[in-house]
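[SOLVED] Predicted holo structure with flavin-adenine dinucleotide

Edit: marking solved, answer below. Original request kept for reference. I posted the sequence and ligand SMILES and asked for the 3D complex as structure tokens.
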Amino acid sequence: MPPPGVLGAILTDEPYERCLHSYGRSFRDAVRGSFGQYPNPPDLVAKPASEEDVAAILDWCASTGQACIAFGGGSSVVGGVEPDISDKWKGVVSLDCTGLAGVLEIDRRSLAARVAAGTFGPALERELGREGLTFRHFPQSFEFSTVGGWIATRSGGHFATRYTHVDDLVESIRMITPAGLYESRRLPGSGAGPSPDRLVLGSEGTLGVVTQAWLRVRERPLFRAKATVRFANFDRAVEAVRTVSQSGLEPANCRLLDAAEAAPSGAGDGEHAVLLLGFESARVRVEPLMSLALECLKDCGGEIVEQTASPAPGAAATATAPTSGAAADSWRSSFMSAPYLRDALVLTGAVCETFETAITWDRFSELHAAVLEAAAGAFRDATSGKGSISCRFTHVYPDGPAPYFTVVAPGGAGAASDPSALLGPWSTIKQACSEAVLAAGGTITHHHAVGRDHREYYGRQSPGLFQAALAAAKRELDPSGMCNPGVLLPER
Ligand SMILES: Cc1cc2nc3c(=O)[nH]c(=O)nc-3n(C[C@H](O)[C@H](O)[C@H](O)COP(=O)(O)OP(=O)(O)OC[C@H]3O[C@@H](n4cnc5c(N)ncnc54)[C@H](O)[C@@H]3O)c2cc1C
């Protein structure tokens, strides 16, 4: 369907762009992309440079019966950006938001910044850093994801306690919907009814296109204390972390790795669970907080392996890289390179999946055991019993942890040349583990989002009336249902 003249300049049907906007970055996406399979490319890719462009694209899609999928960094791991939609649509446009980029305004007095939605993590930190500020939101996909994507998916950063989801760091949001402009008021907090921001946070492109947001920023941390603590027994380590998470100390990092997770990264010896603990502040030394936390951990059977603080006592605080411990450094570097390693594993014929959830402390052990059992059963069914599963806590709340599981298993015979030899076992493992998580009372996702892949589970875990209310909200903002159809809710 040829676009009207004025839109021609921001739309392309170039094959490379259509391929690039076909997928996110899930294991399934990586496999299909590696084998050159692109069953659902968008017909066109739009590259708007302004909000007017975004509104014009939405109008054109609405008037021509086409669907529109907002695309940020394309790092979705849940089928959030794939144009896998029904035949009723006359076409589909992938709306790439990365032309709307940059820090537009800083309110130093309120410590807030107005940021365009297509800004990638590194650019955001670079621009804020010039003012001595930081957003301090570091998803593992930080390099490849955008502010708009974070808001649309309620991303989780790497503060391990307290501020975790981007939700708490967003002051107001501006979104263009098919029904018009949706903009919330800048407020530090509000008790006025259900929050307009909360409707947009996690909407995954189904209500409109987020174009800007005011974000809560902070001064860069200058004082840090870090420690690595190991435990001979995972259950005792879990109890130790629960105690710290309920102590009110609120460490910035409190990442527990089981022995299987710690060993390959070089942070552990394969026998011990390892806890990476960190405190930070822009204003005050944090060693006293660390001492209290370490006392608590020792009481729970923890053994301190290493401990550092920066700056050294008496030295001036600077914004340079902090001193860290060997185990923490080793784990961090493995964590940051994991996305690249995953894609390499695909090429070697390995199945590799990560999934995450959250559960209250009273039910964690049961959930953990159920997931391990489900994975073992899936390995028996799909990979001749071969495979490994490990667990870490990405976040801890006073009332429960957010466990993150990593599965690696060999693909079936012919995995080097046949994608089904990878996707068959992957699907068996993913389904078994997802069912186990839901049956044990967990959420299908703590921060990876819903997309198309988790939609059915999201429907099952949330109240039926809530789903109906969400569908009604979508009908109001997106009357034809053209915004990312099939994500969060079934297509109408
Ligand atoms: C290796 C790896 C590690 C990851 N680690 C984390 C992690 O630590 N924490 C975490 O939370 N997630 C993580 N993710 C998942 C992913 O990075 C997040 O969901 C991220 O927030 C997506 O941002 P994006 O800009 O790439 O959005 P995209 O992938 O482009 O889009 C994601 C969804 O948001 C919608 N969307 C994007 N931009 C907009 C917009 N401007 N307006 C409206 N809707 C929009 C899309 O339609 C889609 O539904 C990881 C992914 C990978 C591949």
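OP edit: The two ends are 23 Å apart (CA to CA). Thanks to everyone who chimed in.
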